[in-house]
Amino acid sequence: MAERPVGVVARRRRGRQRSGLGAGAGTALCVGAVLGPGALTLTSTAAAAAGPGSVLAWLVLVGVSLPVARVFAALGARNPDGGGVAASVERAFGARLAGPVGWWFYWAVPLGVPAAALIGGEYAAAAAGWGRSAVPVIALLVVGAAYGANLVGLRLSGRLQLLMVGALASLLAVTIAVSGTGVRAAHFSPFLPHGWSSVGVAAGMLFFAVAGWEAISHLSAEFTDPARDLPRATLLAWAIVAVLYVGLALVTVGVLGVRAGATTTPLTLLLEQGLGTSARPVAAAAALLLTFGAVNAYLAGAARLGEALGRRGAMPRRITVGPAEGSGVPRRSLTVVTLASSGVVAAAAYGFIDLETLLRATSACLAAVTLAGLAAATVLLEGRRSLRVSAAVSCGVVAVVLVFCGPFLLVPAVLAMAATAFAAGASARALHRARRRCPDHSRAESVGRAGSPR
Q: Which of 12, 192, 351, 449 is packed most tightly, with the most Cβ within 10 A?
């Protein structure tokens, strides 16, 4: 049986209906996907790894993320479908490489979503004085809320996120403003207490914070006019994210000094500089908004990717493809990735996995997806010389970030082997069924297919 390309199903669905996402809702989804838990805790995590030099890691990654964002927007606008990066890799290099890329993103989501939800839960629990036992409960509630929002359709989910992102951007801007008066130059010395290599280590951790552009590529088919609105939404989202991330990184180090790398709730400490004890509920609200935005966008992207991969035969169909839904929501794929995320939250609650492991494993997978998408762009974006050059240069930078992921590269390696093994097994099962249906001619038919030009 011939395999259908990743984007075929999405194009058919696009012909039947439009979700109506415009530039505004699209910008909100982009910001929600990228501006996630990085604004809550990764400023502190990076400061612990590189001291004040962590600001360099933020600047480099934010700078690199601009061409990355533009490249993924161009790919999505040119070929909008739910297959996202995997579909682009298939068009550029063939189906054999597309499967592992799809698995990297799909199964990174049940690692990254729990990390984001647990960070938000920690902030909220600390503000309410509930203790650490409440953290996984809050995390599960956030995951459940995002699941419900996606069930009712991406258009309503996008509108909800538009309202929340507006409130969130305003709140973070206020945080930077009220705490900025406490910045001290002395807190930036020594600038590189752990040497230059620590900046690379920090960048490997921070990739989790600037990833997310590939998540929006899976939602490109949901835009009313992808060619017009997706690039606009992406550029506006990048500008918002760049200002907020760099601003938070600067005030975290400049205001907190040595405390920057020792706290898990830097946003609360920053707000306390200007708001006093009333900062805790404000920080909790910001945490929940940031967390919901990231979880909502990643579940939406993974659900559509899983359905596309399942219909193509690159992932088990019974867990990713359900009956046709009038709303266009891939309910079965969405349910699977949500249940997997909830299971990881439970595992973290019982101490089977820690937050740093989740963050670094997710970063390794998303960096691998980004590298694959950039490589595909150097082939597919003919006639767009500047973007192809940007993609090629960004490939080199992301490859260096991947090296600093170290042992966590085992995660995408294992997923690639699993995807390859599944594809080989699926091909063998299809051939076996063909032989059972036509035992006298199966050998000749197989030889004919192998000898035919592609």
A: 192
Residue holding tokens 């590269």? Answer: 409
Neighbours of 454 (CB within 10 A): 4
Residues whose CB falls within 8 Å of the CB of residue 235, separated by 6 or more in sequence, listed in order: 69, 70, 73
Does a cis peptide bond (omega within 30 degrees of 0) precede residue 190?
yes
Residue 261: give its domain's CATH number: 1.20.1740.10
Count the Cβ atoms, other than its own, within 10 Å of residue 369.
Answer: 28
In Å, the largest CA–CA distance within the chain is 82
Q: Would you say 66 and 386 are in contact if contact means Cβ atoms under 8 Å apart?
A: no
pLDDT at 156 exceeding the cut of 70: no
- Cα–Cα distance for residue pair 215/223, rounded to 1 Å: 14
pLDDT digits 0-9 by tens, 370-420: 899 899 999 988 878 888 888 898 888 888 878 888 899 999 999 999 999
Tokens of 357: 């492991």
From the CA atom positions of the chain, what is the Rg in Å? 22
Assigned domain for 30 exists: yes
Residue 426 lies in a domain: no
Residues ≥6 apart with Cβ < 8 Å to 351: none
Residue among 407, 452, 400, 346 at smallest CA distance from 60: 400
pLDDT of residue 13: 44
pLDDT at 141: 94
- Decide if 370 contacts 398 (C-beta within 8 A): yes
Position of tokens 């809550």?
40
Establish if 447 belongs to a structural domain: no
Among 21-30, 175-184, 321-330, the minimum mean pLDDT is found in 321-330
Q: Which residues pair with 223 in a beta bridge?
A: 21
Task: Check if the beta carbon of residue 178 is closer than 8 Å to that of residue 271.
Answer: yes
Strand partners, 21: 223
Domain count for the chain:
1
The rounded distance, in Å, linking the Cα atoms of 388 and 370 is 14
Q: Are 368 and 85 in contact (CB under 8 A)?
A: no
Task: Give buried/exposed letters for 207-218 (b at 16+ CB in 10 A, else e).
Answer: bbbbbbbbbbbb
Residue 170 burial (CB < 10 Å; 0-12/13-18/19+)? Answer: exposed
Helices H / strands E in the chain, number of each: 19, 0
